[in-house]
Amino acid sequence: MTKVFAIANQKGGVGKTTTAVNLSAALARRKLRTVLIDMDQQASATSALGYEKTAGASLYQVLHGEGQARQKLIQTERKNLWLIPSETDLSAIEVELSGSPNYLVRLRECIAPLKDSGDFDAIVIDAPPSLGLLSMNSLAAADYLLIALQCEYLAMEGLGQIMSVVEQLKAAGVSPNLEVGGVVMTMYDSRTNLSKQVLKEVRQYMGSLVFNTLIPRTVRLAEAPSFGKTIFEYARWNEGAFAYDKLAKEVHKRFFS
Hints:
- This protein is of the alpha/beta class.
- The chain is 42% helix and 18% strand.
- The chain has one domain (3-256): 3-Layer(aba) Sandwich (Rossmann fold), CATH 3.40.50.
């Protein structure tokens, strides 16, 4: 059964897209047929895999009821990894769909044929760094929310906000089955007391939902997207690559075993 994950945090610059791209690539390397859906208008995940913003390539028209999500699939050069890219037009969705029927579950309806087809094992949605309509759609379409959380104090405030949104979506009946699947701690620096303290507090608050794997702060992880490469292609022996390999192993065990 296909599992749908939304990787989200309303705060930008926390390693959300880096995690979406490299976790998707790592799952594909573990032979899970994986689709990465870029729902961020900035199209960072799209460019991180080496693709340009292209008019008509995103789910924009599908969200308006025109065409099907399968038509937007790009088979990437990585085995077992597909991409549905983003484009600038997605920026208009916030206004165009607001107030229309079922506006919070449009994405869920769009990807339902992909999920039900049995052709894929995992669908990973890179949600925008905001709490707007596209983020709400990303959460409502997911089975599991994976929260990317930077090791800094403001992260705790953001964590409380996104947990509150999940509860609101469930209470409103928009996404009654949505679960918080886990918290990925990013930009961890073992040399600083700050990283260790934030990690301790998040683990006290979230318990076993926090993945054991810590994503380190490394220059290579920051550089890879500018070359249109995953960390595995750009710096295979970097500690960031090892970390995302380990994270994929945890995700595989937690959700697919």
